[in-house]
UniProtKB/TrEMBL annotation:
<dbReference type="InterPro" id="IPR043129">
    <property type="entry name" value="ATPase_NBD"/>
</dbReference>
<dbReference type="GO" id="GO:0032153">
    <property type="term" value="C:cell division site"/>
</dbReference>
<keyword id="KW-0131">Cell cycle</keyword>
<feature type="domain" description="SHS2">
    <location>
        <begin position="7"/>
        <end position="195"/>
    </location>
</feature>
<keyword id="KW-0472">Membrane</keyword>
<comment type="similarity">
    <text>Belongs to the FtsA/MreB family.</text>
</comment>
<dbReference type="GO" id="GO:0009898">
    <property type="term" value="C:cytoplasmic side of plasma membrane"/>
</dbReference>
<dbReference type="Pfam" id="PF14450">
    <property type="entry name" value="FtsA"/>
</dbReference>
<dbReference type="Pfam" id="PF02491">
    <property type="entry name" value="SHS2_FTSA"/>
</dbReference>
<protein>
    <recommendedName>
        <fullName>Cell division protein FtsA</fullName>
    </recommendedName>
</protein>
<dbReference type="InterPro" id="IPR003494">
    <property type="entry name" value="SHS2_FtsA"/>
</dbReference>
<dbReference type="InterPro" id="IPR050696">
    <property type="entry name" value="FtsA/MreB"/>
</dbReference>
<keyword id="KW-0132">Cell division</keyword>
<comment type="subunit">
    <text>Self-interacts. Interacts with FtsZ.</text>
</comment>
<comment type="function">
    <text>Cell division protein that is involved in the assembly of the Z ring. May serve as a membrane anchor for the Z ring.</text>
</comment>
<dbReference type="GO" id="GO:0043093">
    <property type="term" value="P:FtsZ-dependent cytokinesis"/>
</dbReference>
<dbReference type="InterPro" id="IPR020823">
    <property type="entry name" value="Cell_div_FtsA"/>
</dbReference>
Amino acid sequence: MEKDSIAVGLDIGTTKIVAMIGRKNEYGKLEILGVGKSKSLGVARGVVNNITQTIQSIQQAVQEAEANSGYKINDVVVGIAGQHIRSIQHSDYISRNNPEEVIGDADIDLLINQVHKLAMLPGEEIIHVLPQEFKIDGQHEIKEPIGMYGGRLESSFHVVVGQASSIRNVGRCIKSSGLDLSGLTLEPLASADAVLSQEEKEAGVALIDIGGGTTDLAIFKDGIIRHTAVIPFGGNVITEDIKEGCSIIEKQAELLKVKFGSAWPGENKDNEIVSIPGLRGREPKEISLKNLSKIIHARVVEIIEQVFVEIKDYGHEDPRKKLIAGIVLTGGGAQLSHIKQLVEYITGMDTRIGYPNEHLAGNSDEEISSPLYATAVGLVMNSIRNNTHSATPLVELQKPEPVVVRQQPVVNTVIAPEPVYEEEMETVAVQQPVHNVEESTEKRVKRSFFDKYIDKIKDFLDNAE
């Protein structure tokens, strides 16, 4: 990994869009060079529903990241989420022509490409094909078949599927923002890279990423991804419930949730009241914090119970599938007061809050260590593994004959963040855990078919012009 190889991740969320520029330092840690954040307009429950507004939000985040870092962004790795995502388990095999030859990358690629030919529902496409355990001539539980001999190579796969139209809409937004798409990854997998240790993945762990529009789940056991799911509810439905239950506007509801919200109603006394300014000269509205917590509690319980159904579907009650490391909470929703205790109460499993600080360089801004940025950090790590050079120093662009990195699209509207937005994004101070685990060796990432898939999206966008 070159030290000067610059990686860029773009997290297109329902409440915020984050562009993050980073590189690995000499100690193998992630050094964040610049971050840009904008309010997400045009995205609902992880799916783009307004192309123009999404483009404007992406451009605003990208421009802020470029201004903070001194780098010009060329291409990005983007996270995919949304209620259209589903996963399936599939087994497949190939018969090798010459069993006397050792198994190589070409055999693995052939097997993965075969899985990509699976018949999907109309309008669906395969996003990820993730090999789990291999089997060679009947020999089970082989994690690394490269270099072994055998005639029949078999594997079980975790296949992630999504709506082709939703994926292409994301690609269209990236291209119209003047950027290239260098990679596409499932957001819970990116978050897992940022906050989980290899020991947790080996022991068995469920990562719950509570975002604004969706709650993402990724389950690991024996170091292998076993199950993924996207629940179409997140922090925004909690805000909506507060708005309806307290008869206040959405900005006030979000601010109440962030500043005073708790997932555990017993923590608030009956006489704790917060006063909300009235609209247009009306009297201030007084809201009981106990009632506020009851509203939040009811919705969080519903979200966690739906996630717990997915964990049960995986089969965690089977002793061989037991999740010894329990649950890790991340995302903006993980900052809600007392949510850790509530999750432990509902599931009976050990729970911790996941921070991406284990992989970050020591001089990183404290704000970036928040669970809010876990997905963005994971996307930058994904981009680094692809050995990309996704950004160019601005000084290089000021030479006598400047290289045109990207042409700005004709969009003159810049949407300024509303004054209350900065307050909405304030983080709750949570004791950060200290990890003393050694950084694990990243597994070999096979890119051959994935490169073709990205090229296919680019071809589609070019032909659609």
